[in-house]
Amino acid sequence: MFGQNQVPDRSLQKTVNQRLERTGTGAQSKVTATVQQGTVTLSGALQYENQRRPIVKAVGNIAGVRRVVDQLKSPPKRRPQS
Fold first, then answer.
1. pLDDT in tens, 8-66
2. Residue 11 DSSP SS3
3. DSSP class of residue 14?
4. Between 76 and 56, whose confidence is greater?
5. How far apart are CA 73 and CA 50, in angstroms?
6. Do 39 and 6 contact (CB within 8 A), yes or no?
7. What is the CATH number assigned to the segment(s) 9-73?
8. In degrees to the nearest 10, what's the CA dihedral of 60, 54, 46, 62?
9. pLDDT score, position 3
10. CA 39 to centroid of chain Cα atoms
11. Would you list the DSSP string of 30-68?
């Protein structure tokens, strides 16, 4: 049923979840992932915008991931105090 390079979604979901735990997204960040036919959709809220790139890259480098859809929400930009 699966091609040589295709990883079952269930296995991929487990690997993605483990990778997210290791990326250290921080206690205030709530990032979740869903996997469907090798496409990983990341959703949730980031604590800091600079967390986005490492998370997307870490997930995208997992064997079997065909595509990463970034639906992560950034924190609101703070206005400098005068």
1. 999 999 999 999 988 866 556 789 999 999 999 999 999 889 999 999 999 999 999 99
2. helix
3. H
4. 56
5. 12
6. no
7. 3.30.1340.30
8. 20
9. 44
10. 11
11. EEEEEEETTEEEEEEE-SSGGGHHHHHHHHHTSTT--EE
Query: Is residue 37 within 8 Å of 72, Cβ to Cβ?
Result: no
Q: Where are the domains of the chain?
A: 9-73
One-letter amino acid at 35 equals V
Q: Which residues of 19-55 are buried (b: 16+ CB within 10 A; e: fewer)?
A: bbeebebeeebebebebeebebebeeebeeeebbeeb
List the Cα angle 58/19/7 in 5-degree steps: 85
